[in-house]
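Example record for the data management plan.
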Amino acid sequence: RIRDEIGLQEGDVIAQVGQTRINSAEAASSAFDRYGARGPVFVVFERNRQYFQTSFYLR
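Corresponding structural encoding:
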């Protein structure tokens, strides 16, 4: 599964994709489309009240 490959777990909340703050699933989808075409995608997510970051390439 893609979320396993990039380190996301069920219950994680995506807070930022690239330079875009995320406030909805639609905003996340649009940001992934926009940034994914340019190279690695930088993501900030919240898990258990802590913030983490990861980056990955979309295929």
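Summary line stored alongside the record: The chain has one domain: 2-56.
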